[in-house]
Amino acid sequence: MSSQEITCRILHVDLSREKSRVEEIPDDTCRLFLGGKALAYYLGYRLIPPGTDPLGPGNKLIFSAGFLSAVAPGASKVSVLSKSPLTLLLHDSHAGDFFSPLLRKAGYNAIVVEGSLKSPGYIWVNDDRVEIRDASHIWGKTVSEATDQIRRETSGNASVATIGPAGERLVRYAHIAFDVYRAAGRGGLGAVMGSKRLKAIAVYGSGRPRVYDEERLKRLRDYWFRHFSESPRYADIREYGTTNALEFSAMASMSPSYNFKKPWIPESLASRLSGDAVKRYEVEAPWFIHGKSCPIKCARYVRAKYGDRYLRSSPSMRTWRCLGRQRESSTSR
Which is nearest to 210 in space by CA: 104, 55, 74? Predict the structure, then answer.
């Protein structure tokens, strides 16, 4: 194989047989479907036949790393695809942080999960070693509890995709959480994961993707990092992330608020949920918030007190604008 050829390595995990294998997709196909959503749909259309029961063992759950993950600063998106129990169609959802880069560093472009376990378990991918481990002791635990326990059992540097009790109970809008604070939240793919009795997938990789021209990549990476770090055009989003956009969308009547029941929220409310209001609670992001290496940082990592508890979150405009029903007042409409 010449140095210009591309090979996509797909890790297939059959839960029913508790076996794994690696498929190598050749150069011409990889160039058509470079990664992320495109590669996920290629695999989904090839492997999920019509008539598949979304919550049956024949459905596949595909985790596809973005093509630039572990190569470009801040590139961290993973695409998750399966047949949705909500729409009965192939459905994709996306999330960030370290899962996608570590999957690439482990040497894989995607993971395809099929079948179902007899009892709860999780997958541990550590470079070229793949294990299916017992998860009976964390079945029923919340996402944060399960993630912490899995890191203790595998590696403190692992990235973990986890479901909570909703996914275990096959709630058809359950999401898959990545490193606790990021979620593939559309299509009910957490229910698909729960139907397979798969609590989580933990990934760690120590390698790096092969690059054809390292020097050229470094020049491009440095140029674009400086551009986004220094350009006045991005000063506002560098300071506040996307939370400040809530005020602009409120002024333009483009906020899908009240669980998408209204396109408008008062500017006075928007100002209390964005910009400086959020930044007051900002704290240093932990290591596994992959956006730390991004010059934009769309979301901020915050810590605030609610009652007698301190809560941590990573809000962005997309989560803030979709907040649920609020008590009506004379200023709202």
Answer: 104
What's the confidence (pLDDT) of residue 96? 82
End-to-end CA, the chain: 64
DSSP string across 32-89: HS-SHHHHHHHHHHHHS-TT--TTSTT--EEEEE-TTTTTSTT---EEEEEE-TTTSS
pLDDT at 270: 80
User: What residues contact 271, with CB distance under 8 A and at least 6 apart?
Assistant: 247, 277
- Domain 8-204: give its CATH superfamily: Aldehyde ferredoxin oxidoreductase, N-terminal domain (3.60.9.10)
pLDDT, tens digit, 9 for 90 and up, residues 159-194: 999 999 999 999 999 999 999 888 999 999 999 999
Domain edges within the chain: 8-204, 214-320
Position 326 pLDDT exceeds 60: no
> Count of alpha carbons within 13 Å of 62, Cβ hemisphere only?
31
Tell me the two tokens of residue 71.
Answer: 């190569």
Which residue matches tokens 């140029």? 223
Q: Quick check: 66 and 100 in contact, CB under 8 A?
A: yes
Higher pLDDT, 258 or 34: 34
Nearest to 192 by CA among 94, 88, 108: 88
Nearest-angstrom CA–CA distance, 147 and 329: 40
pTM of the model: 0.86
